[in-house]
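Students often ask why we bother encoding 3D structure as a string. The short answer is that it lets us treat folding as translation between two languages. Here is a chain of 409 residues written in the first language.
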Amino acid sequence: MISTTSLRLAALSTVTLAFAATGGSAFAQKKYDTGVTDTEIKIGNIIPYSGPASAYGIIGKIEEAYFKMINDQGGINGRKINFITYDDAYSPPKAVEQARKLVESDEVLFVFGPLGTPSNTAIQKYMNAKKIPQLFVATGATKFGDYKAFPWTMGWQPAYQSEGRIFAKYALTEKPNGKIGVLYQNDDLGKDLLKGLKDGLGDKASMIIAEESYEVSEPTIENHLVKLKATGADILVSISTPKFAAQAIKKVGELGWKPMFFQSNVGSSVASVMRPAGLENSQGVLSLAYAKDASDAQWDTDDGMKKYLDFVAKYAPTANRADSSAIYGYGQAQTVVQVLKQAGDNLTRENIMKQAASLKDFAPDTMLPGVKINTSATDFYPIEQLRMMRFTGEKWDVFGPPIDSNLGG
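And here it is in the second language, the structure alphabet:
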């Protein structure tokens, strides 16, 4: 005969199992926001395929190719990426127009990798008001890591202020009595890096004896270089995008000027800057790196670089593998794929931001050894390590250990 106690225990056990079953199914339930189905994840992107910063157009093309590779491999958790990328010609008003189109017409889950400080500044309030991730913006302006004011915006590359501080530290060590001339793009890119330079110089900020700003609408910046040389500056800091960086390096060579030359990372591509400027003019130029240089033979046997080169050969055969912007696009796309993998079936905009802020020691194939991506709810600066490099022969030579900026705390 079965006791009352046994019956009660059996009933309790049945209820517990039933609860666990329903609880388990509820836990596994898929959560989607606009832009997601069982078979698709719709991602938006804005890149200057035309205009003064069109050299960066390769980034969007590489990202598109990378997502095609991912789709060919079965997608992410069974879903294919639908990558919608638009040209804003490096124009803030056009960027706003394209952002609205992506959000309101195309109905993307989020906007990934929009490029340029002016363009991202123009769309930042809109994206945050709509609570749509403006994820891994392609600019190092410090404000794109301000998680308190803009919780839906996150950077990716090292902050420009970090570059400025490191340039200052190197100049103080190698040429403490030098006279610094600064050429900078008249926007948040230029102003941010210049601030970092001054902060890094500290009480020796008076070493800066001249500042020349330029507008991206200017056809040439040669006159600014002539003015800077005339000041007697023996250190030049060029805070410029590819077109103008190439002009600056070439003009300095033509002038026979031999300053200690610092070039900002965003204008350091071998393919779109150093070669067009003339290899003879590029010798000795200093910059900072966080990614490997595909033109450098030392990486030919590197596992990560092999994966990148195999990808380029199959999915982007017309791309110049030596273009640092191609390396950039690959690393950035690989990072967003990691975020989507972590998100699983919870593909809400809120969870996308949560996962983007939960990256731990993630190292894209193309990062330099020792450089890893780490984020948190209070650290929206994914890459905070840089290494010095000097242009020698036909390539950049990296030297010294990774230098941490720790802007995110």
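Translate back mentally: The first strand starts at residue 31 and ends at 32. Keep this in mind for the problem set.
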